[in-house]
Amino acid sequence: MASANLVQELTCPVCLEVFTDPVSLECGHHFCATCISQVWERVSGDVSCPQCRQVFTQRNTRPAHILSNVAEQVRQLRVGAVERKEEFVCRDHDEKLKLFCQEEQEMICVVCGLSAQHKMHNVIPVKEAAQAHKEKLEESLKLLQGQMNQSVRSKQEGEDMIQRLKDQVDGRSCEIRAEFEKMHQFLREKQQQMEAELQREADKILTQLENNLKRTIDEITSLEGVIQDVKVRLEIQDSQGLLKDIQALLKRCELSVSSPGVVPVDLHEDVAEGRLRYLKVWKEMRAVVSPVPEQLTLDLDTAHNNLVLSQDLMSVQYVTTKQNRQDHPRRFVKDLCVLSSQSFMSGRHYWEVCVGNKTDWIVGVCREFVKGDGDIFYTLEQGQWVIDVSSNSVKKPNVISHLEVKLRKLGVYLDYERGQVSFYNADNMCHLHTYTDSFTEKLYLILNPYTNKSGKNPEPLTLLTT
Questions:
Q1: What is the pLDDT of residues 281-305, one digit of tens each?
Q2: Which has the closest alpha carbon to 183: 284, 285, 277?
Q3: Cβ(401)–Cβ(433) below 8 Å
Q4: Helix 274-285 and helix 126-234: axis angle, to 10°?
Q5: In the β-sheet with 106-108, what is the strand arrangement from edge to edge?
Q6: Is 432 helix (H, G, I), strand (E, B) or coil?
Q7: How far apart are CA 305 and CA 328, in angstroms?
Q8: DSSP readout, 68-121?
């Protein structure tokens, strides 16, 4: 007979009977398929689990096939008053089924146990077999419950990951909309400002042109009146009539016509040269875009003595002759490195470095404690997040060799709060690699142009500005 605990585990909470066609809900509880359907039929809208009351917007159930098989086996083992007598009587010998054949996995009578069919089989008493199978079923139930719990956890983890992804997408979408709205608003304001300046300039010129035109029209009207009077006087044949008030008429003929002057209609250069103004607007827009390419300079006090910096401290190049410089505690001694003069302990920052046709170089970010008085290994443990490219091999990380187009400009992006250092092909902003860590100290841009490699790697590394 199945144990009470086992039967309880296999009992539907609704009908209080051993499961029939059990199904699993999203919360992990089980019910007979018919029972849960009848419960939910009486509810409109969202439904809930009758056991834990978790609310579901969808009426999803999943068949529990393994649990169904276990319930069916337990149901077959249960002995009750309603069970028919012939179920426990041998059909061949009309004897009670007191034995259990382990090979055939069926109950048999004593006569069957002595027969040739079962003589060589392992036969044990029914009660002993029932106890053994009950223990197996209980163990199976434990395993099934463990698997169920694991599946429920996996389901929850999957749902959490989906929600996390959705939250990230929503957050990034809001960020994208906010950033572009700032740029759109800035451009709309600049557009309105430029159009207003253009209109003011045009109105000023138009007012001068209209005033000159009005004066010219008034003069034309005066001239037309004098011309008409002269024509009328010339038609008079009588000498006395011709000479009447002749002095006044001649005086009118001396009407002075002033030239309106030339009004320049060309717009001022700062209004007309729109392309240059667009460049100015683009530069001004950097104030509303974050991050924008920043202008850095290199720290001469950190430069290895075989490195030469340009006058503007924007470029570094290897030379074979050591430079005569004073010792400095921050100067690199063994590695051909130089740090940026600027350091960072917060915010988002972006720089671009021209690597040109170089075959060997190192570009990245490092912690403040990196010194030049010992060997430097470019590892995260040493506090450096770099791309290290060598003509012999692509070292760290192996991302440059996969590019279809040769990398000439490297973009370096630092998000201090998020603990990320990312690298991009600055020509097309194709993502190359991202390091993730936790930052608590000052960070610097670090450059290493390597040696000339017998003339194959002579170019400098140059910080770019926009």
A1: 776 776 776 667 788 999 999 999 9
A2: 285
A3: no
A4: 150
A5: 106-108, 99-101, 123-125
A6: strand
A7: 11
A8: HHHHHHHHHH---TTS-GGGGB-TTT--B--EEETTTTEEE-HHHHHSTTTTTS
pLDDT higher than 90, residue 166: yes
Closest Cα partner for 25 from 71, 73, 70, 67?
A: 67
Both tokens assigned to 272: 């007309």
Cα Rg, the chain, nearest whole Å: 47
Choose among 427, 449, 420, 430: nearest CA to 344: 420
323 C-beta neighbours (distance < 10 Å), count: 13
* Average pLDDT over every residue of 62-66: 87
Query: Tokens standing for 4?
Result: 């009470």
State the DSSP H helix or E strand holding residue 190, giving kind and residue range, or none if neither.
Answer: helix 126-234
* Residue 452 to residue 460: CA distance in whole angstroms: 10
> How far apart, in whole angstroms, are the C-alpha atoms of residue 404 and residue 355?
16
The single-letter DSSP state of residue 171 is H
Closest to 99 in 3D by CA, of 109, 88, 89, 91 = 109
Which of 325, 317, 322 shows the shortest CA–CA distance to 306?
Answer: 322
CA distances from 35 to 26, 31, 42, 66, 172 (A): 16, 7, 12, 19, 45
Let me know: does 440 contact 339? Beta carbons within 8 Å.
no
The pTM (predicted TM-score) of the whole model is: 0.51
| β-strand partners of 422 | 413, 434
Please give the angle made by the CA atoms of 271, 277 and 280, to the nearest 5 degrees: 145
Specify the pLDDT at position 110: 83
Tokens of 282: 């683009």
Amino acid in position 88: F
Helix axes 126-234, 246-253, angle to 10 degrees: 150
**Could you give the 3-state DSSP secondary structure of residue 443?**
strand
**Cα angle 111, 114, 119; round to 5:** 140
> Are 39 and 50 in contact, with CB atoms under 8 Å apart?
yes
